[in-house]
Amino acid sequence: MKKISTLILALIIFQVNAQQRNLAEKLGYGPNDKLLIIHADDIGLAHSENIATVAAMKNGVVNSTSIMMPSPWATEVAELVKDMPDIDLGVHITLTDEWFNYRWGPISSKSEVPGLVGKDGHFHFDCASVAKNASPEEVEKEIRAQIEAALALGLKPTHLDAHMGCVFYGRPEYVASYLRLAQEFDIPAMMVNELFEGVVLPNKGLFEGIDLEKVKIIDKVIIGSPEVYDGIGLASFYTESLQNLEPGVNVLLIHVAYDDEEMRAVTTRFDHWHSKWRQQDFDFFTSEKAKKLLEEQNIKLVTWREIGKL
């Protein structure tokens, strides 16, 4: 019986992979084309983050972003993108607040999602605390609230993704809620093959009612790290990443903002992901060097809006 179950699971994985690895071709590209979404996380975090993200999309090569609805500056985003009807803007599902002196909490009533609230009355600082304290029902309620809040602002989300990966690496039930609500609202949800095979397929009972064949699986997600920042530097890392980009649909996650007084205050006591980091991201992806690299490497930019039309 165990061998049969293993064989069935292997066949399921093979069938899903065979379908999903053709995402580039479904978008109308060849199997050897290098496709890239240059995605600026965290719009809505602060005014500095907002205006830098919009500037990077208008004047640079950044072509996608996602909004943190619980953040106090989220409402400004709707005003800033009024003249960008085709903007690729998703909902950055946010279940934590990692900052020391810039705190926020859930959009849902705190009495309805007490597991998402820490001792200070705001979100927990990290994903581990969310997984330990928040029930799947609470997480699903908050994900729904954030999507509905974006819609209420007049935004038309092109996709869902997750801040700090808390939805992905908390509990399998969180991933089920994430995909279930993506299906309900007809919004593509970012998913990588490692997560799909490691969390979704082994827990298929949690995903009943979700059409897993319609989940759009990204081939690779690329993001800088503290080790990169302290080592070769972000500009070198991004240069090498573009030079060595593999065929398929790739997502490059960045964070753009200005190294100004506001962002220095928001990111105080942080050695990484701070205002200087975000300024460097902005500088690189609005540079002529970035544009030239894309051309030289024959990298084609695609968006979640395009993926959502499949």
UniProtKB/TrEMBL annotation:
Keywords: Signal. InterPro entries: YdjC-like. One of its GO terms (molecular function) is deacetylase activity. It comes from the Bacteria. Residues 1-18 form the signal peptide. This is ChbG/HpnK family deacetylase. It comes from Arthrospiribacter ruber.
